[in-house]
Every structure is written in structure tokens, then in C-alpha cells.
């Protein structure tokens, strides 16, 4: 049995569909990316899982326990940071942790938690939260989500406002916790960063799940592409079409896919006496794979 099981969840806002037969699982110790465009249903799905929103059909279970708007018992095992953390301007970071741990019998060690989320340095100390940057508030929100030793952590845009070093450190923290058995469900528009982190992806569009896969399975949709800068791009386009390869031009570069290998393309280009200035191999790009999949799904609407 998966740690989190979401089965056939439906939710409407008047006539608008928020979720339609939404189903997916999250295994213990797995990092799952919930991905889709704005308004696709990501936040709605996360709110339903955390008991913040009712749903009209289906079931959500966490560790075998039912979760819904009227039954929050299982949520003792869940930490979450959805949208923006609830921060009180006149409290310090440590005071926030103590406040959110008041109804917890066995909270995480505050000193260790502050160290792991990097809220124990000089930038925090005795400073009140009203003086925190957005990135500092995000790190505090993540620390709050870990107070209860959760089995599942749900994060909506956790990298929002973080500088590159903090993003790197957050990725490492999430991976370390996953190695300890904690599961994560993460939504983020920073797909390049998400790609470095997740084990599985759940793609949602118009309130419907259109793909669930491991990250390697998902990238099987994305063919290897070779990007060329040449002395005659128009000739390269003509060449590619003659070989029945897919070809596009973007910002002065020719992008080819569908050939057996790079050497086949280079040999064909040399044969028409066109000089290759640069060539790069591109594969496994989460953003492009997502856009291609969404375009296909929208065409089927």
C-alpha cells in the first residue's frame, strides 16, 4: 500500500471543474512533482489532501487512514507549506517553532531543525519575522512543516524567493529526508530545479491527471535533440525534411530530432558542404516535455 493514495477525486466550484477523477499515489521515501500550468488544479489537489477543502467524490487515504474535510486525524503525519507560510511579524523564528509545536506531543528538536533549514544563523537570531526576506520566510515555513516528524511533506512553490545556494541546500535537505523515509509532494514552476530532485511526476491539466510516471519514464516522451549553429540554416532545414527528421529554428539555431544518432546528422551536413559552428545535445528536459504533453492534451480537448 502506498503512503498516500488519491482515488477518483472530484471537486467543482460552481460549474467550473477543480478536479475530475484525480488519482495518483505517493510512496514512502519518494519525491513526487505535481506539475501543470496555472489553474490546472495543483493547489486544489494539495488543499484536498491536507483536509483544507472538501471534495464531492473519491477517497484520499494517508497511511491507511481516510482524509477529508471532516476527518483530520491522519494529518498529524503531514507537514505542509502551501502558497505562503503563516508568519507572525512580531515573533522570532524560534518563537514560531515553539508556537506551532504547542499541540505536538513529540516535536522535532528545535536546534537541529533550525540548523537543517538554515534559520539558526545571524540573519535570524532574535530578529522578528517582520524583518525577514521572502526567502527567509520560506525557510521558516519549511521548518514549521517538519515540526511533527511527518511521514509526508507537501510543498507548494518551496523555492520561491530563495537564492541559488539556498535552493541547492533545500534540494539536499529534501533528498536527505527522503532517504530517511519521508515522502514529498512538491509543486513548483522552477522545472529545471524540480527536475534535479523528483523521483516521480504527476502531470495535471484542466483538473485532470494526464500522466503519472517515474522521471525516467516521463523523459522517454522526449527524444534526444541536436542543436546546431551553421553557415546555412535554411539548407539544414531542407536536409532534415528530406531525411524525415523533425526540425525547428529557434534564435538562429537549428534543432533536429528523429535521426538514429548525432554522427548520422553530421555526416549528412558535411555532405552538402555546410559548416557546423556549434552543436549541442539536449535531452531529458522537463519543461519541454511538459509543454509538449500539455499541447497534445489541449489539442484533444
TrEMBL record:
Give the domain of life.
Bacteria
Does the entry feature the keyword Iron, yes or no? no
Keywords attached to this Swiss-Prot or TrEMBL record, sorted alphabetically, are: ATP-binding, Nucleotide-binding, Transport
Q: Where is the ABC transporter domain?
A: 4-231
**GO molecular-function annotation terms?**
ATP binding
**Which SUPFAM superfamilies does this chain map to?**
P-loop containing nucleoside triphosphate hydrolases
Q: Which residues form the signal peptide?
A: none
- Which SMART domains would you find in this protein's record? AAA (SM00382)
Q: Which family does it belong to?
A: Belongs to the ABC transporter superfamily.
Task: Please give the name of this protein.
Answer: ATP-binding cassette domain-containing protein
Amino acid at each position: 500500500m502506498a503512503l498516500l493514495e488519491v482515488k477518483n477525486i472530484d471537486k467543482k466550484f460552481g460549474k467550473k471543474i477543480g478536479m475530475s477523477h484525480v488519482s495518483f499515489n505517493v510512496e514512502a521515501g519518494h519525491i513526487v512533482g505535481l506539475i501543470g500550468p496555472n489553474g490546472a488544479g495543483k493547489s486544489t489537489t494539495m488543499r484536498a489532501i491536507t483536509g483544507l477543502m472538501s471534495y464531492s467524490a473519491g477517497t484520499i487515504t494517508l497511511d491507511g487512514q481516510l482524509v477529508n474535510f471532516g476527518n483530520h486525524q491522519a494529518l498529524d503525519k503531514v507537514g505542509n507549506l502551501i502558497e505562503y507560510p503563516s508568519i507572525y511579524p512580531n515573533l522570532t523564528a524560534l518563537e514560531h517553532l515553539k508556537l506551532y509545536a504547542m499541540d505536538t506531543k513529540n516535536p522535532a528538536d528545535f536546534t537541529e531543525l533550525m540548523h537543517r533549514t538554515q534559520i539558526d544563523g545571524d540573519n535570524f537570531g532574535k530578529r522578528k519575522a517582520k524583518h525577514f526576506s521572502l526567502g527567509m520566510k520560506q525557510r521558516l515555513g519549511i521548518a514549521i512543516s517538519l515540526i511533527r516528524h511527518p511521514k509526508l511533506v507537501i510543498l507548494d512553490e518551496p523555492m520561491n524567493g530563495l537564492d541559488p545556494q539556498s535552493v541547492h541546500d533545500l534540494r539536499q535537505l529534501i533528498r536527505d529526508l527522503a532517504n530517511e523515509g519521508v515522502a514529498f509532494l512538491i509543486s513548483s514552476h522552477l522545472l529545471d530545479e524540480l527536475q534535479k530532485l523528483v523521483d516521480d511526476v504527476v502531470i495535471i491539466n484542466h483538473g485532470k491527471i494526464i500522466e503519472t510516471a517515474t522521471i525516467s519514464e516521463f523523459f522517454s516522451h522526449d527524444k534526444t535533440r541536436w542543436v546546431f549553429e551553421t553557415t546555412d540554416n535554411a539548407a539544414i532545414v531542407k536536409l532534415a525534411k528530406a531525411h524525415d527528421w523533425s526540425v525547428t529554428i529557434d534564435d538562429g539555431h537549428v534543432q533536429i530530432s528523429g535521426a538514429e544518432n548525432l554522427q548520422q546528422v553530421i555526416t549528412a551536413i558535411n555532405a552538402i558542404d555546410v559548416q557546423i559552428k556549434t552543436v549541442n545535445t539536449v535531452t531529458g528536459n522537463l519543461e519541454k516535455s511538459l509543454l509538449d504533453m500539455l499541447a497534445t492534451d489541449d489539442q484533444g480537448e
